[in-house]
Amino acid sequence: MIEQHLNACKARVEACLVAQLNQLPRSEVQLADAVAYSLKVGGKRLRPALVYSAAASLRADLTLFPPNLTPLDLAAAAIESIHTYSLVHDDLPAMDNDDLRRGQPTVHRQYDEATAILVGDALQAWAFELLTQIDTLPADKVVAMVKELAQASGPKGMVLGQALDMQATGASESVDYLKQLHSLKTGALIRSALRLGAYCMNAGSKERRVLSAYGDAIGLCFQVVDDILDVTTDSATLGKTAGKDQEADKLTYVKLLGLEGAKAEAQHLCAQAKASVADLPNPQVLVELADYICNRAS
Amino acid sequence: MIEQHLNACKARVEACLVAQLNQLPRSEVQLADAVAYSLKVGGKRLRPALVYSAAASLRADLTLFPPNLTPLDLAAAAIESIHTYSLVHDDLPAMDNDDLRRGQPTVHRQYDEATAILVGDALQAWAFELLTQIDTLPADKVVAMVKELAQASGPKGMVLGQALDMQATGASESVDYLKQLHSLKTGALIRSALRLGAYCMNAGSKERRVLSAYGDAIGLCFQVVDDILDVTTDSATLGKTAGKDQEADKLTYVKLLGLEGAKAEAQHLCAQAKASVADLPNPQVLVELADYICNRAS
Fold first, then answer.
1. What is the phi/psi pair of residue A103, to 5°?
2. What biological-process GO terms show up in the record (chains A, B) (predicted)?
3. For a surface tag, which of A26, A181, A207, A245 has the fewest beta carbons within 10 Å of its beta carbon?
């Protein structure tokens, strides 16, 4: 059931991404190709799924596959574009220096470093352009969505989290520090995905707050599970190098709480997420998604 | 007269940037400091001046220094933020590998490469956030401004120009190729600055077209003069390494047209720019600005 929902969301956002990529100028240079490459090396498309799922929890009917791009599709594509840019830059030699991403060469390995920098820059601008293509919502909602995404991804959100993360390597910090770091680095965008879905449904601030609380909990849960999988799963299953955090003496939940402590924390966060959305009109898909995130094997 | 105008524009945009920088979270990490550093190493603030000057040409009264930030101030700060991010990333070792920018260490020299990547990423998101803070224009104008800036700076504009530029090094291409390259790499943002000024004045599409034509001409003129100064001026006056283009066998107007040919082209473009705005209500400041750009010594 939840797998089917995730696959449907993935299909929709990928159709939107492909349609929009076709609008990019095909010049003599490989920029558009490299942008397309970065987006194609996609995983579960979790953040787009959160956009659609938030809307479903507010009674959007996702069984209708609309003939035209909807605000949800454009918001989902925008958030995936921001997420992808952050991965492309994060993989750079000066950052995490990763050669593989989901089993494929990272952009700077497939092309070169300069191209990877430009691909990330292009994806970020493109994300905001995608939001401005939403023409079936009131303009003030679109402005609010641009502000939402800019704040979540910029120096008050994701980028600040990246900076905190780089500084944290090797240090022995507290669980609070780690929570703050992940609340920014991955949490801000996850929260934003849910809130963008709410904006698409013209939801009020109460619904946005509820979805933010859910996002906070599943964002942290996602990261705790990531840390658990890094020590319990092999590289082939993960699609990235396992054991890397331990090797780099990276600050993780497993390091701070132990493996069993981390597992208990994941369960606790999952329950918290599910409880927070209980009063929404149709919380079922968000409930299943929380379980999925908590119990995933890769 | 024009110097006074430029100084007034510079003062206004810098006041806006400082006020907005103070809103960034001061965490344990140096991200906000590094962002502020990148913005402080400012030059003439030409692009912000174009925002204000376009508005002046449409009868904005710039002699009133308003107590609150106006749409013009936020648009000027946004465009400077995008311009600054492009310089920070352009200076990286994998790109132009520059140690100095306007006589000061570049961001990756002052801090480190990872910080420079994150500063550029942060500045880009921040630029769009600044636009969404405009609350005295209709929301549909703000959406149009976000779209304008995203298209001008992203994979259809500036970033595509950067990619073309990197590929062009050492090649022997045509003047048309060089014009296309600069029309994207520097022209798109210059044109966008003028159009953002027009949006702030609620101008129609005719005025935006006129200002775009002016921007095309002065954008190219700016670049031709840059190429001329690279061979005729010393590093101290330029505030960057002179002769670098020649050394790198870079494609320039001087290389393609010769020094005298490039000077004639600059004059031609300047005259074209001035002619294009003749019918605007108050073109004087744009006329003087074109002369200033064409005749500058650094």
1. 80, -5
2. phospholipid biosynthetic process; terpenoid biosynthetic process
3. A26
Distance CA(B50)–CA(B66), nearest Å, equals 18
- Between A124-133, B39-48, B228-237, the lowest mean confidence (pLDDT) is in B228-237
In this structure, which long-range contacts are made by residues B96-105, counting pairs with CB atoms below 8 Å and at least 24 apart in sequence? B98/B240, B98/B241, B100/B239, B100/B240, B100/B241, B101/B41, B101/B240, B102/B41, B102/B42, B102/B43, B102/B239, B102/B240, B103/B239, B103/B240, B104/B41
The complex scores an ipTM of 0.95
Pick the residue of B17, B31, B106 with the most A CBs within 10 A to test the interface with A by mutation. B31
Residues contacting A146, CB < 8 A, separation 6+: A128, A131, A132, B128, B131, B132, B143, B146
Taking phi first (over 0 means left), then psi (-120 to 50 degrees means alpha), and beta for anything else, what does residue A45 get?
A: left
What's the mean per-residue pLDDT of chain A? Answer: 92
What are A243-252's pLDDT values in tens digits?
Answer: 777 777 778 8
Question: B15-42: per-residue pLDDT in tens?
Answer: 999 999 999 987 767 899 999 999 998 7
Q: Which A positions 132-191 lie with beta carbon below 8 A of chain B?
A: 132-133, 138-140, 142-144, 146-147, 149-151, 153-157, 159-160, 162-164, 166-167
CATH code at B197? Answer: 1.10.600.10
Query: Whole domain around residue B180: which residue ranges?
Result: 2-295
Could you give the number of structural domains in chain B?
A: 1
